[in-house]
Write a structure and sequence with these properties.
Elements (H helix, E strand, L loop, with lengths): L1 H7 L8 E10 L4 E10 L10 H6 L7
Antiparallel strand pairs: 1-2
Length: 63
């Protein structure tokens, strides 16, 4: 079963990245904001984030 071991191991260690795509629309002003947040995941494919972490690691676009 050496072949399965080689397939299971990635060649270079890379952290999976969790990306959040957020769109907010404000009907009163007609503004539409887009925000993309990419967070490196250290606990597998899914990461639990608090709201502070989510909004502090954005790209600065939005209200």
């Amino acid at each position: 079963m050496r072949l399965l071991d080689k397939v299971a191991q990635p060649r270079e260690p890379s952290l999976p990245v969790v990306t959040f795509q957020t769109a907010m629309f404000f009907p009163s002003s007609g503004d539409l904001y887009f925000s993309t947040t990419s967070v490196p995941s250290t606990r597998g494919p899914f990461t639990h984030l608090t709201l502070d972490q989510l909004f502090s690691s954005g790209d600065g676009q939005g209200p």
